What we know:
Number of domains: 3
Largest sheet: 8 strands, mixed
Number of strands: 12
Number of helices: 28
Radius of gyration: 29 Å
Low-confidence stretches: 1-15, 221-248
Helix content: 55-70%
CATH architecture of the largest domain: Up-down Bundle
Strand order of the largest sheet: 7-6-5-8-9-11-10-12
CATH class of the largest domain: Mainly Alpha
Strand content: 5-15%
Distance between the termini: 58 Å
Amino acid sequence: MESDREIARIDLRIFPRTEQLVSVVALIIFFASGFSALLYQVIWQRMLGFFSGADVYSVTIIVAAYMAGMGIGSLTGGYLADRLSRWGNLALFAGVELGIALFALGSKGLYYDWLYQRLAHLASSPPLMAAVLFFSLLIPTFCMGVSLPALARALTRSIEMAAGTIGALYGVNTLGAAVGAGVTTWIFLRQYSFETILLIGAGINALVALTAFPLARFLVRPGSVQPSRVASRTAPDEPARTNQATIRQLPVPVWIALYGLSGFIALSLEILWFRILGVMLKSMAFTFGTLLTIFLSGLALGTFLGIKWAVHARNPMRSFLLLQSGVTIYALATLTAFVSLTGQLPSLFEPFWIYFGGYDPVHTGNAIDALPDFFFNPGALESEALSNARFFLVLYVVLPVVLIGVPTILMGMSFPLLQKIVQRDPETLGRRVGWLQTSNIIGSMLGTLLTGLVALSWLGTPDSLRAVGLLSSTFLLLAAWGCLKRPWVRRGAYAGSITFMLSLAFAVPDAQTFWATLHGAPPANVIVAEDNTGVALIKSSRSDFSRRSFVMSNGLGQSAIPYGWTQSVLGFLPALIHPNPQTIAIIGLGSGDTLFHSGGRAVTKEIICIEIVGSQINMLRGMAQRREYPALLSILNDPRITYVIADGRSYIMQSGRGFDIIEADALRPNGAYSGNLYSEEYFRLLLDHLNPGGLAVTWVPTERVRTTFIQVFPHYVDFGDILIGSNAPIDVDLQAIYRRLEDPFTREYYQRSGVNIGQWLDEYFVKRQPVVSDPSAPRPQSTDTNRDLFPKDEFLVR
């Protein structure tokens, strides 16, 4: 038992004090390494999104490519680590960290300047795009994968200490990653451009490398010991007696495979959690980074707890299997309980029910501004601001922690226990670290791809949760097989495990109830459609949808049916101003309001609607079957309209053609990836793809958007909350517009929506007095604009 205690602490009576200092410093720099790794992931994913698009397919491939490189690095690093001395492994670690720093310095040039600006056409082929993403990420992710086996081999002094040393390294690295995700999302992206953030990351990795190189001098010097010798009290592959006496032995390859299954389940749950919480929170720019921080923090905390547990665990194999079972049991039980209770007892969960049923997300900017006073001077806040800040914390911290905090802690606790199980031979320590990491990463990749791209489309979220629950019963069955000796008892345990997991899985509410509850509505009052691209839902105060119905996309309000909001004006205003709008591109579908009103001219031959959430089309088809609305039927049956499920910006860039009108439906400026459609580079892209005299249209939610747009277009008309730009002077002739409106085709077409076009024209042309640009006047220049690599409005930069 005394030897087991060495797992969790360094014995100062045996090892030199200098080596204790080396271990402490190594843990600190590995924390910094994890910090920079997530910093890069956040920024590189955004940069690569310009090349590949920000749709679910592209994002999933980027994440899978990231993990694939780390898996190859872990496997290679494990074999290298067992062939190097402790000094050599620390030098290897320093070398890969320096390699990451050098790559980071050139990554903006590779990902944005070269791939996006020069080779964007490669993304038009999905297989080619996947290959480009994989190879472009291979070098830095390979280096990241090498780091853990190398550092683990360098710092492990005895095989009894392997689980504690490796667990501590994994824990601090994961904690660093959690902090990196949070700081990058909430601080760096609000203060610095992407290039500056990459410089910060490169500086961190360079400092880690420069610290690790001299640190190696304090380990046993090269040549003084055999390269791959580590002190051991356990014969190769000889299990501890306590383990052998209480649970059947499984070969090491089986444990490696089980860790792969663990990775599959973990990433499947992560995708499902993020889908569900994204809808609950009405996901905005800060949501993903916040959830990732909580997820990684749970893993780190669990790892530290697991190190302590591994010291006393008499049956680490059984503990590992039960922990893995507990992950899914808790996940399914809490989600089922929360959704069921919220739907059945809305008064008990009134704040959530009201928020889920709302149209807009919580005002993140106001909440952020109020948080310092909330913690340090609550008396300075008005009651409404205090209440908003409190609800923001409950929504963004407490709720995610309750739902995903405990299972991620259980995931983290499993890691040191698994190391204790498999680390039996000092000669293979590095390889087993590498194989375990590689297996887990492969499982994670498969979970990401199969759940993110297949299961969500075929099964939807509730059925995917059920499938993951049934898959995790493998761990319960293995625990029963290993711990129960009598065959009839084992058979009973098998039957009980399967029955329990089936009961838990099928207690998850059906899709209609599940998503209706998370939109604050009775199931009879919603129409829902889900695929891998997102959740689309339309809801009404009546089950027959006879009153105004609100269209929601991933929990966020988009527009309504019947039509008549700003989206209507975005559609008909440019269509009536342009003298001959034959080809139109609309980014975004929503309720179809903008799309419908853009098609009111007989001269229009082609309208392309590019929507990133493909399930919205099925949702609108379902609505057309429940309520007859001529305008909706029109866009679903208009032969001029082509629907494309893709990232709108990428489609325009790869189309290789011009349009008479290009516009994006109204988009919140601080929504996730909204900066891609409000940046100077995006507006220049529109300018480049306009036919002569063509019109580019944008909603104007902030003054910064106005400034950005005006600096790009040589000719523009400012209607206040709508801007229209062009490559030629824009003829704003109200009389000509009214004549076009009297065309029989146009008049009959717009009657289908019931929108009073004349009233809106009076509002925008008479009351608002649009401002037409003067090409001879000096154009004001400002640096306070939205850029691709510094989307200020998206991250609420003041």
